[in-house]
Design a protein that fits this description.
The structure is a single chain. The protein is an alpha+beta fold. The protein has 2 domains: 215 residues, no CATH class; 180 residues, no CATH class. It contains 7 helices and 21 strands. The strands form 4 sheets. Strands 8, 11, 12, 13, 14, 16 and 21 form a 7-stranded antiparallel sheet that branches. Strands 1, 7, 17, 18, 19 and 20 form a 6-stranded mixed sheet that branches. Strands 2, 3, 4, 5 and 6 form a 5-stranded mixed sheet that branches. The chain is elongated, with a radius of gyration of 29 Å.
Length: 439
């Protein structure tokens, strides 16, 4: 027995689950999915696949199954688009694998810089280098990006009595260098201050506790009072990756548009005044971001591919594509997949997979005598009550199929990050905060 080394794929994005048995496939509402017995062509109870007397079918009501959705240009001869979306007949004993891929929300990369109270003696400056790596930077520059910031504009006279002060306020030195980095036109699109809109990204730890400020507060002196150098234990600044791709709505959607999934990686480091790496100026840590799981943009493209296999139209690339899609009804497919939430953040999806084979009992050549089919059911992870119900019931459908077939239902939470292989923090070696830059 041989398998063709490719599985034919069909995707489903339900908006409703048929829970009870006895509903005919023609009566499934748009987006409603059910488990169907081909002996009666009616649904079985959603979590009881074993009760089917014949082959099982995953059947979803077409999103064209609405009033006026089965014709093109009001021509009754151009109908048939309201036909439900069906899998191949599934024999439980020919199911080879069942699994799900959990929702994974993307996270930002983060880099933090820590310095001690004596990091910037009077007459010297603190120098920082910030490297930005990842596909976003490569697409922008054809190379990774970097910038250098320094505290050169800060003098002891700006910060206290020059006769008694030996060191520049480390918070002011760090904030000034960071402000220069954030204003650099090369790296500005990719990086932001952590918690800039709330508490801020600078933590000043003194003998009495830790206070948090924004870079703007420290630089301007508004809402910030420098602590005595002798009381400062540590000053820490954190920056996060903040690149946002250009996004297009449904009206101008094109499957050929690029959409990024890899978060940029930030790596901060210290330099001495000659521009060489400094190993005793402080410490830095870099935490790589994590890629998300299944994005709405991925789901929409796969659903459109399924529609293409069914020869349902989808027009793009022409001046009047938006109008043609409205005429042909393919805008209903676009509207059925939520790609971004109300705040513009990408919506993640949980995916359920079923892999089975259909044997060819009459195959004279004896080569590739089994076709494989892979079905994907996508459920959004947006926290909405409807999404939670869909997730619950689809999981029960898969559980029922697992019981009927004897195939274990596997789960694969995606944990791959886009930075270092360890996925943890990377510390740049140094002597630790509190070390003095050689004068």
């Amino acid at each position: 027995m041989a398998y063709f080394n490719h599985a034919f794929v069909k995707c489903f994005n339900p908006s409703k689950i048929q829970l009870e048995k006895g509903l005919a496939t023609k009566d499934l509402a748009a987006g409603q999915i059910g488990l169907v017995d081909d002996k009666t062509w009616k649904t079985v109870k959603h979590n009881d696949a074993a009760s089917a007397e014949g082959l099982l079918y995953l059947v979803q009501g077409s999103y064209h199954n609405v009033v006026g959705g089965d014709t093109i240009g009001n021509n009754p001869g151009h109908g048939g688009y309201a036909e439900s979306v069906k899998s191949k007949g599934i024999n439980p004993k020919y199911i080879t694998r069942l699994w799900s891929e959990e929702c994974v929300v993307p996270t930002q990369s983060e880099t933090c810089i820590s310095v001690g109270p004596k990091c910037a003696p009077c007459g010297s400056a603190l120098f920082l280098r910030l490297d930005v790596k990842g596909s976003a930077a490569l697409r922008f520059l054809n190379r990774n990006a970097y910038a250098i910031g320094d505290s050169g504009g800060v003098c002891c006279e700006d910060d206290g009595d020059p006769d008694t002060q030996e060191y520049i306020d480390p918070a002011l030195a760090l904030a000034t260098a960071a402000q220069m980095l954030l204003e650099d036109p090369i790296v500005k699109p990719f990086v932001a201050e952590k918690n800039a809109a709330t508490t801020g990204g600078i933590e000043v730890t003194t003998s009495t506790g830790t206070d948090t400020y924004t870079i703007a507060q420290v630089v301007s002196g508004t809402g910030y009072t420098p602590a005595a150098i002798a009381d400062i234990v540590d000053v820490k600044l954190c920056l996060v990756g903040a690149y946002v791709d250009t996004k297009f709505g449904n009206c101008s959607f094109d499957t050929r548009d690029f959409y990024g999934k890899e978060p940029v990686t930030l790596i901060a480091s210290f330099l001495d005044e000659s521009g060489d790496p400094c190993s005793n100026c402080g410490t830095t840590t870099s935490t790589p971001g994590q890629m998300g799981g299944t994005y709405g943009d991925t789901v929409l493209r796969e659903i459109l591919m399924t529609e293409n296999y069914m020869q349902s139209p989808f027009n793009q690339g022409n001046r009047d594509s938006a109008r043609i899609r409205e005429i042909e009804g393919s805008d209903r497919i676009l509207a059925s997949v939520q790609r971004n939430d109300a705040n513009g953040n990408p919506v993640m999806y949980k995916a359920y997979y079923l892999l089975h084979s259909v044997p060819r009992f009459n195959n004279p050549t004896g080569v590739f005598d089994n076709d494989q089919y892979l079905y994907k059911v996508y459920v959004p992870c947006d926290g909405a009550e409807l999404s939670e119900q869909l997730n619950k019931y689809v999981a029960e459908i898969w559980g029922g199929i697992s019981a009927a077939s004897g195939v274990e239902l596997e789960s694969f939470p995606v944990t791959a990050g886009s930075g270092s292989e360890s996925g943890g923090e990377e510390e740049v070696p140094g002597e630790g905060p509190g070390e003095e830059i050689p004068g």
